Recover the amino acids of this structure.
């Protein structure tokens, strides 16, 4: 339920990006079986968010230092991968960064390399960002009742009269921490 409330605010913003054909070739997204949604391959990728309407994707990535540790000064970056525009990268605008897709985080003082984080649009939806080895970071959260590594989030919505789209469901997709089995939790509105 928390993800659905979070994305109501998010989708108000993404509603305005319109539909565009895919022109950037990449492998199929793990988030949806709908064709035309590429899987991003960005450096430092933690997870990504896609939604109905067009394949433009919000990327959540980690910044590493030269020695492969999470950069303590600017640990994370969030931006658009505009697959509908040949895969161009675009920074989030002020409203996207501060009210929808931005990430809020705090380092865990007793656990170097670990962060407690959430989307700015839903402060109560905490996840753990950890670095199990140099040069590798992951987002850990419960998915379908199991501790898992988050891969992506997909929001299925329908246009309706007015400005706020109707969210049909949200899929949270990841892999179990032990065994790497794909796991999906679908949340209906």
């Amino acid at each position: 339920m928390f993800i659905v409330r979070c994305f109501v605010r998010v989708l108000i913003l993404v509603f305005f990006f319109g539909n565009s054909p895919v022109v950037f070739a990449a492998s199929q997204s793990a988030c949806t079986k709908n064709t035309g949604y590429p899987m991003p391959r960005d450096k430092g990728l933690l997870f990504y968010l896609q939604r109905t309407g067009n394949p433009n994707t919000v990327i959540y990535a980690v910044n590493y230092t030269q020695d492969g540790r999470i950069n303590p000064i600017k640990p994370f970056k969030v931006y658009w991968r505009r697959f509908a525009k040949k895969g161009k990268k675009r920074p989030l605008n002020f409203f996207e960064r501060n009210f929808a897709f931005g990430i809020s985080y705090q380092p865990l003082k007793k656990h170097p390399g670990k962060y407690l984080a959430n989307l700015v649009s839903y402060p109560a939806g905490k996840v753990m960002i950890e670095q199990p080895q140099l040069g590798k970071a992951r987002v850990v959260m419960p998915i379908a009742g199991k501790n898992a590594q988050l891969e992506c989030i997909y929001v299925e919505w329908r246009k309706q009269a007015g400005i706020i789209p109707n969210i049909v469901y949200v899929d949270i997709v990841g892999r179990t921490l032990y065994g790497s089995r794909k796991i999906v939790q679908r949340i209906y509105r």
Summary: The chain has one domain: 2-188. The two ends are 7 Å apart (CA to CA). The longest strand covers residues 146-158. Residues 2-188 form one domain.
